[in-house]
Write a structure and sequence with these properties.
Layout (H helix, E strand, L loop, with lengths): L8 H18 L17 H12 L13 H14 L9 H15 L8 E6 L16 H18 L3 E4 L17 H11 L4 E8 L10 E5 L4 H18 L3 E6 L3 H4 L5 E8 L3 H7 L2 H19 L2
Parallel strand pairs: 1-2, 1-3, 3-6, 4-5
Antiparallel strand pairs: 4-6
Helix pairs in contact: 1-6, 2-4, 5-10, 7-10
């Protein structure tokens, strides 16, 4: 027997990258939203699965909340037709494919069938930037994201948010992942068409700086076009100055698989911007601008 080959640094990096990608794909979107289901399970989540399979044209048997052989057979048939791993186990990929099909069958409007992930920056113990007057970035980003969700759903999109309240994404998963990994996992595991992260900028060196900026993934023309389209659209609906779009060295941009943009809307260090962000009508104007930009970007 020959001497074993030493593990090179390159091979080690490749193994680590592969492991990270597997984690990103397999972590469920949220514990209660994307449970792992298999033969023998029962409960409300199984009823939800059975209804989705039936709506998609795959007979799961009685809608009884029991993951029996007929529900497993319907799951396998759906997985095979959707080009997924055929194992009869309902994980994030199968849930995502079912939601996409469900969105296509129910939604109406120009974004019919599109899956869009909205990422309200920060949350929970992480407030983000704090203004000189005590305002927290996490509150503004969630308010804008919630309004944006309504506009996108009205156009037929299937919308997922990385958080729906004041908590850290992934806080209810087991084991609990890093919150940035959780945000990325939500988008990647559901096969989203677009990822949009919402933030508010800060520049303490010059409190007079105000405006809208967009950031995108290096080397991605689609992400660059998305960020520019969104920034210009928000500037048009809010009156904020369009500053520019730049490559962003951000985890959520560099680890998502779809076109992704991170938007910085106003500055927490500028009194005028903060005062506007406190106003419901202004948050609505931002949301309308983002929704218009998404529609323009995804237009056929």
């Amino acid at each position: 027997m020959g001497k074993p080959r030493p593990v090179t640094a390159s091979l080690t990096r490749s193994i680590a990258l592969a492991a990270a990608l597997i984690i990103i794909l397999l972590i469920p979107v949220r514990g209660e939203a994307a449970p792992l289901l298999r033969l023998g399970d029962y409960g409300d989540n199984v009823i939800r699965l059975q209804n989705m399979l039936l709506s998609a044209g795959y007979d799961p048997g009685p809608i009884d909340g029991i993951f029996g052989p007929r529900t497993q057979a319907a799951t396998i048939e759906f997985q095979r037709s959707a080009g997924l791993l055929v194992d009869g186990i309902v994980g994030p990929q199968t849930w995502g494919a079912l939601e996409r099909l469900s969105g296509v069958s129910r939604g109406t409007g120009p974004l019919r069938g599109r899956i869009i992930v909205i990422d309200p920056g920060h949350g929970g113990p992480e407030p983000g930037a704090i203004s000189y007057w005590g305002d927290k970035e996490k509150d503004f980003t969630l308010g804008i994201a919630s309004k944006l969700r309504g506009y996108l759903e009205a156009q037929g999109a299937v919308v997922l948010m990385t958080r729906y309240g004041d908590y850290s994404p992934g806080h209810d998963w087991s084991p609990r992942p890093d919150e940035l990994l959780a945000r990325v996992s939500i988008a990647n595991s559901r096969g989203a068409d677009l990822f949009l992260s919402i933030h508010i900028n800060a520049y303490p060196k010059d409190p007079s700086v105000s405006g809208v900026m967009g950031f995108y993934r290096a080397g991605s023309w689609e992400s660059q076009r998305l960020a520019r389209t969104l920034a210009n659209s928000v500037a048009a609906t809010t009156g904020l100055r369009y500053i520019d779009t730049q490559v962003g060295p951000y985890y959520v941009l560099n680890n998502t698989y779809m076109p992704a943009a991170l938007m910085e809307i106003g500055f927490m260090t500028n009194w005028h911007d903060v005062n506007l962000l406190r106003q419901d009508w202004f948050q609505d104007a931002v949301a309308r601008g983002l929704a218009r930009g998404v529609s323009e970007y995804l237009a056929p």
